[in-house]
């Protein structure tokens, strides 16, 4: 903060700090405190608010632990989001390395443009495009039938559809942090390791991945949180057996009319986010400053 005041002066620096503090309080702290207050109160009729029954309770949190269906959906959302994260990492790491160390500047720029242009379209429309692609009579089934790979159309909706849609939807959040980290690696180190006889997998395991661990950690955190908090992809591409925890939260708020239960479920999901961030930072041995770069 001292550097901020030294750079912009006392008046402008104080204004910047005040605006940031106001934004954090009004847009981050206040909504979460309100959600916490809602989650600790029972769902009452308007006439009962402020009465004897209006007191803090953990019943809304206990409801999740006591509901086997919602509990299974919550646990499934965790491992499915982790699967989305791992799949996205496996898809984007080779692309990031190719863009950073193999491709020419022109080819890398074209690849970036090819990846970014589809994201100019709204996420809902992009997910609807996947809905059309994976439809029973869609292009994917038509191509597989024409090639003779399948004998009859396959219903791709469900876990596969949600996985494919989410990997595509969040690919840039994994790709760019890894690309930025790998691009700072001196190519001489890779060439030296190769000249000394190191194999390609060993070069990546001992040189590239340790150097890019901050970018990998950032991409994993972003991808997991976006996948766990996604609603559009599971709603459009999922099947009845592939419900997402966010759909349960949505139902409590907008269909069940129980904002208190919905707030409790949302706080549980928020706690999961925090635990994943801490676990990822611990696993990759990086700190928040490294992730924020």
TrEMBL record:
Subcellular location as annotated: Cell membrane
Transmembrane regions listed in the UniProt entry: 12-36, 78-97, 103-121, 128-150, 156-176, 214-237, 262-284
Keyword Acyltransferase attributed: no
Alphabetical list of CDD domains matching this protein: TM_PBP2
Domain ABC transmembrane type-1: 74-280
Predominant subcellular localization, coarse grouping: membrane
Cell membrane as UniProt keyword: yes
Entry membrane topology: Multi-pass membrane protein
Biological processes, Gene Ontology terms: transmembrane transport
Domain of life (superkingdom): Bacteria
Keywords: Cell membrane, Membrane, Transmembrane, Transmembrane helix, Transport
GO annotations of cellular component type: plasma membrane
Pfam families for the chain: BPD_transp_1 (PF00528)
Family stated for the protein in its record: Belongs to the binding-protein-dependent transport system permease family. CysTW subfamily.
Matching PANTHER family: INNER MEMBRANE ABC TRANSPORTER PERMEASE PROTEIN YDCU-RELATED (PTHR42929:SF1), INNER MEMBRANE ABC TRANSPORTER PERMEASE PROTEIN YDCU-RELATED-RELATED (PTHR42929)
Protein name: ABC transporter permease
High-level lineage: Bacteria, Pseudomonadati, Pseudomonadota, Alphaproteobacteria, Hyphomicrobiales
